[in-house]
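notes to self, project folder thing:

trying the whole complex as one job this time. last attempt i did each chain seperately and stitching them together was a nightmare. two parts in total, labels are on each line so i dont mix them up again. if this works i'll redo the older ones the same way
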Amino acid sequence: MTKEKRQIFVFLIFALALLTIPFLLRESYLLNVLVFIGIHTMLAVALNLLLGYAGQISLGHAAFFGIGAYMSGILTARFALDPWLVIILAAVSAAAIAFIIGFPILKLKGHYLAMATLGFGIIFYIIFNETVGWTGGPSGLSGIPNLQIGGIIFDNDMCNYYLVWIITIAVMLLSINLSQSRIGRALRAVHDSEVAARVMGINAWVLKVQIFTISAFISAIAGSLYAHTMTFISPASFGFNFSVELVTMVVVGGLGSIYGSFLGAAILTVLPEFLRVFEDFDIIIYGLMLILITMFMPGGLISGFQLLAQKVNLKTKGK
Amino acid sequence: MVLKVANITKAFGGLTALDDVSLGVDAGSITGIIGPNGAGKTTLFNIITGLYTQTSGEVYMENKKISFFAPEALAALGLVRTFQNVELFGQMTVLENVMVGSHTKSSSGFLSCAFKFPRQIKEEKLIREKSMRWLEFTDLDEHAEMRADNLPFGKSRLLEISRAMALEPRVILMDEPAAGLNSRETLQLAKLIRRIKELGITVVLVEHDMDLVMDICETIVVLNLGKKLTQGTPREIQENPAVISAYLGVS
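result (full assembly):
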């Protein structure tokens, strides 16, 4: 099997497995967790394009997630606009905001970029909190309608599962394609040596702004889906903590790996649920696990999987 | 004249690194820029390739003024460089490094790449084939799938040249291409530079290895303490008393 065919094969299995899960697993609670994993995967993939591929940090990505969620929430709950249209509108708006702030801040590097993105993340968090007339402020915004197509209303876990995961799988596929193209190589080139990338004719600044914009676009779609599946949103979900959690998902899963982002999102969504049995100690164990993963798997969880796959491969070839 | 530098001055605060330097490079030639440490050779390279901005003076390529052009704009015009410390994309494979060199020669955008439009698939295949040929050009084809930062130093220099060639440049500037190479590798490098010239590409190099410079360069420019000392053929340079004193410190 050629490398390319193997990749298609792996992706098909991955997609098929995810799409059959609801038939095997009908428990509402678990499906709900999986919906969250889907939304988080979308966000982690979006951030990974920026952080893992182009090598540019964002500590404010929760803001784009929030822009998507609040635009969908406000425009459908208060103004009764068509939710599908609003999703597109919200994604385009988030992308436009990213484009405008991207030009000045993506001139910055390293810690300075981290500070600037942290800044806009906090600004949006304050906006979500303070514009009470629109967002409902700290007490949140409720009454967001479920999405519907024709006669199907996405108001149960099964429907939401398919809604979220079909879009997530599409986002993953497009991101994988992008990462293996000339654009993906240009992004990684900027990551490894910006000066050499520029000498090779890559306009690093514009490229960074472009990927930042796309990343915001995807994050906003995730936000809209979140708003419509939860039907209630509050600013706490879009603060600094969540921005950091997204960075953690990308790093723990594996920088520069789309499947890694899925793994990171899955682990960081599921782990807190499992650790509840430890009650007050859960946060300590959680932190410890993250430290161990980053210490012993600097390439993220995905690198562990790849190593395992190689070993299995060698064994089967040996026989 | 494919490249012309006119009255370039570069001051870093109070220090004048380059003082009114002018020189011309003939199309299709190999030109060497030499001079003792601190003469301003790399500074001049950085100004020509858009990494530094000069205090005054102009740079022309084929009579087009390219002063203050960004490196990416110069790449599109066919001016490329290599680095003294080798700037590879370390986490990418050897082949991918060269494929990045095709960036200006390909055009698929974000949508086309994400949705794998047929034109993009075709272009990708073409980039791969062309890049393999540039790897064969420097005998690196067997290392195509290796991670670039695992290459031994001598080969990483060759990879940087392959990558620059993938840009199909008209002018290639090499900053100390022989630094860190052993004598056998330096001989191979000399052959390689001649082959690049045979392809009709103008080569400009900064180099400390005098045997190499005298062997392959048709014109040599000597810089000393930020000023141009002289310009001439290898023979003229070797016999020039000013050059000898600049190198040996006799006054």
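what i see at first glance: The two ends of chain B are 34 Å apart (CA to CA).
need to look closer tmrw
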